[in-house]
Each structure stands twice: as structure tokens, then as C-alpha cells.
């Protein structure tokens, strides 16, 4: 395999012994040399391929330590993404266009990744608006994990009537006559939301494979090269892992995936882990696909759902009794685990269990950790540090911060979570998204949140003391995240000997205004030295991807993350106007494949609200 040399780059290595460089050489999937161009050329073979970075910023591939990528991939091609859409009017234009494309009996689904606070109108659509936009096509809209909106056609499909009882922890909102309106509420258990979503049609296996490939490429285009999959509800092992494992066998994975196993049945959690721990071992697999341990669900009685619109749920008295045998089994069999925990009250009680098990089965060297930890106390941080655990944080507050402030006040929101304190305590801390339902999968939204302290709706949550500088935030998305998959030293830096996972950025992360961080994309993403995504000058280097299946897929029309896709269109041809959308006169030909009556309808669906016709 021919050596590759990237030259003319602003290289951020995150290697403190060699922090900056302008060239990188790659051989056999790993980084061969990093430094000045002359030194790097001397280290590589004379016939090395040369790739000019054009003076752009080169960073290590981003690592998402908490994402539901396996489940998300199976469904990606069916979902209309409102991630990053700036207004409700734009979102509804997209919805109407997708309704026109979607054949019966398929649904139009908007499944998380957005919040009403990102819209200029600061609201969700009404049920009347949904029914007007889609009188016959079922529409399901999931907003975070607090509510879902179903139009009348979807209500008929799922069979909810005045005689349908409310499930535990959920509410089917009804009108004065007792008939369901189409609004479903988590109070605070989200089971009603994803159980209802699960009633919709599924893609056949070959379409799921295509869908997963498109989702992986979408993540590659944002600079993501590795993830830790946190399992998920209705993600059964091993059945729902067949597609990702097939892609792995076929050499079509473009992300490195470490996967955790998430128990599926209340009261049968110990049985699940006892069985799984005889089937697979942590670390089993290879650098592309490997097992990572248990969680984020260990036992259902310890799941404190993070709907800040309702009061904090009290965990039941049996939580410790349920959790202890599972943690004891995992510790004895040396399975790392992760545990979803939003509130300090849950964390403290879980730590009581972990400390008890630790007295009999030392946890030292077992890379276990909590996820989320928005309200963790200083005392709990110290207890985690004493046990050798870590904390994976996600940008859920970027989507729910306004609701937190409404309930608890702005002062209480100033350290939710207290990332700076965690770092000062010496804890392993990593960054992630919790995508695709609670927040967007776009890593730059998370990095923007860490640096600016703002929600996607523009509300400032954090004072300077709880914000991160850009390098520290980037480390949480690269080098630091390798601890959570027990892969320290293997990736996360641009350093000789590490895996050649490299990302060339559309804009310089270290110099763009803070408000522009969220708009950054990758123009070139390499996994093990192979190009897996490219745009602009590098578009031809990426392997071709089959068209989205089915042909009515929202991905075929709208792509994925809204702002990032729009900016990619604007930068690819060099004729962008101030709008960033409608300056592409030659791109009007694209409108032929979009169900819009005119240019205003076409560009409006892509988020342009300033087209003048």
C-alpha cells in the first residue's frame, strides 16, 4: 500500500510533546510521521502520494462516546431531520414536501435531534397544523424525550382510542370527549414515546443496510471517525446487530464502533447480563467493531429520565437491591459498565452500591462510568474519582436548558453538568451527543455548547468558569474519549503509531468566531488512512455511496443535519451569497427532483427565508 503524505496543513496533534505540525505521513493505516514537511517526506517512501491540505486545519478524528448509532442507522433513511432547521416555517415546508413524496402506508417521522427553542417562532407545530399538512399520511414527531405529536392518520395507525388506557409513566392527552388529541407526554417515562414509534413500518434488511451506510457517511462528513454505541430501547442483542455486523464483514464500516449492551426487559436484567457475558467479552472484535461492556441501562429501576419539564423522578426503594447483583456480576466478570444518571440523587444511591461491591471485588482498572450527570454534586465527583470511574457528558442541556431554567432557575443551571469541576478532580471526562433522539448527532453542536455555554436557542447557561477553552473541548472529543473504550494510545491524537483517523476542516476551529463553530464540517475524513468522506476539492476521493433507499427517503431530498448540509452546498461551488443558500443559480436544476412548485418552495425547504420572487 502506497504511503500518503498530507502537506500544507495546520495540524493540531493534541500530542503535548509535538503540538503543531504542517505535514503528516500515513502508512498501512497508521500515522508514520508528524512534523515539518521536509522531515515527513524523508520518513515516507519516495513514491508516496501527496495530498495538499490547502492550509486548512487538520485534527484527529472525532470520537462520540455516547451515541445510538446502530439503532439510528437502521432508521436514518426513514427520518426527516429537523436538526439545525432555523424556523418552524422552514421545518413545516420540509414536512409538506416529504408528505408529498411518501407513499402509503409509510409514515413521515421527525425523530428527535431538535428543540422548539431553535426555531425563530419558539414553538412546535400545532396538531391542527399537522393535520392540515398531512390529512392522510401518518406523521410522528418526537420532541426530545418529553412528548410526541401524532396527526389523525397516525393515531388511526397506532390504534389509540378513547378506550386506550394511559401506560405507566405516560399520558395520552385527550379532548373534552375523551378522545386522543395526538399529543403523547412522558411523565416522565419515555416508554410511551418509543413504544408508539415502534408501531410504524420498518425498512427491509437491504434498505436498513443502505440506511446505515448513509448515516455513517453523514457522521463522517461531520468529522466523526469513532463512536461508542450506548445500546437503546428496542435494540435487541444480537438480532438488531446483524446489519452492522454484516457491514463489518463486507468491509463497509466507515466508523469505528465500540458497542455496549443495553438490557431490554425490566426484572430480567441480571438474566440478560449473565447470558451475554458468556457470549461475548469486552474488547472482543477488532479496531473497527468491538464489544465495550454493559449499559447504559443496567436496571430499569435506576433509570431517571431527564425530562426537565416535569419534577425529578424518585427512584424506587428497590433500586439498590436490583442494581447490586448486576454490578457484582459485571465486576466479577470484568465487564466495564456505563450507567445513565441525570440527577445527583440517583448517582449517590448508585455509588452506594458501587462502593459496597468494591469492598469485595475491587473496581480498580475497570473503566466504568456514569453518563450525563447534569446535577452531580462535588461529593459524588470525589466518590467517583476514589473508585476510579469516569463521566461521559453530552450536550442535552443545549436542547433542554430553557426548560431547566424554567423549573430550577438560571443560577441552578450554571453548572449542569459541572465539567470544569470534573476535570479539576482528575476524572476521565469525555464528550458525546446522546443522538439521535435526545439531541443532534452533530459533534460541532456539542463543541459549541462546551465553548460558548449557550443552548441552540441562544440562551446563555454557563458563566465563564464552567465553559471550556477550544483545545480542552476538542480533547474531550478525541484523546479523552479513548478511556471510555479502553483504547488509550491507539487513537485520538495525530501521533506516530496511532491509527490514521484524520479530519480536515471546512473552517479553522481555533480561529472562527464562537458563533461559527456549529457550522464547521469536514471536507476530508480519513479512517485508517483511507478517505471515507470528502467534499469540495476532495469530493472525488471518497468512495461512491449508493442512492438512499427507498427512493422517497427524506435523505434523498434533504440530507441530514440542516445547517451543515446547506453550508456544504454554499462552499462546494464558491458562489455563495450572503444567504448561504440561494446564490447557486446553477443549482436550480436540483429543484426538478423536489416536489415544490417554484424556486421559493424549493429553497424554502432548505431553510432559505429570504428568496425574493
TrEMBL record:
Residues 49-532 form the Amidohydrolase domain. One of its GO terms (molecular function) is hydrolase activity, acting on carbon-nitrogen (but not peptide) bonds. It comes from the Bacteria. Keywords: Hydrolase. Transmembrane segments: none annotated. This is Amidohydrolase. InterPro entries: Amidohydro_3 (IPR013108), Metal-dep_hydrolase_composite (IPR011059), Metal_Hydrolase (IPR032466), YtcJ-like (IPR033932). Coiled coil: none annotated.
